[in-house]
Amino acid sequence: MPTDPTDVLAVERLLTDFAWFADRGDGAALGDLFLAEAILTVGGRDLRGPRQIAEDCRRRFTDPHRKTRHLWTNLRVEQGDDGSIVACALQLTFEQSTPGLPVQLRVNDLHDEFRKDGGGRWRFASRRIERAMGLALQTVQSAQAP
After folding, report:
1. CA angle, 111 as apex, 105 and 10 as ends, to 5°?
2. Residue 144: pLDDT band by 50, 70, 90 thresholds?
């Protein structure tokens, strides 16, 4: 069944908002992207509901040396038989935990299911983040003017 283009735009926005809020440690906004019964599986852990998801986001952001940037690409969207939307995408996560040490690049597969909330807005019903590979990238120190 074809997916409505406006629904695809809503899914794209959810993926972009997830990355934006995760990179800024905005747990409340990140949790709001999920339905009350949603499950986020990351690093082998199941986080259930917006509250646990928000708390995990805030916890990750408490380390002042940890910086992340999430990028997604190669989105595939399909209409589910039950009115849901299922999507897969590729996510690149760049993480620097200690200044001067190599930046980690994780290549992840995203497996998402979306459903509408009571107000008719698309939300994550589930998200599974699976690491496909990881790399260490050397950082380039910028030259400082005397």
Report:
1. 100
2. very low
pLDDT value, residue 100: 79
**Which residue from 131, 136, 64 is spatially nearest to 98, judged by alpha carbons?**
64
pTM: 0.90
CA 19 to chain CA mean position, Å = 5
Determine, yes or no, domain membership for 125: yes
Q: Are 33 and 115 in contact (CB under 8 A)?
A: no
CA distances from 70 to 74, 82, 94 (A): 14, 30, 6
pLDDT tens digits, one per residue of 93-110:
999 988 778 899 999 999
Query: Residue 104's domain is classified under what CATH number?
Result: 3.10.450.50
Using DSSP, state whether 9 is helix, strand or coil: helix
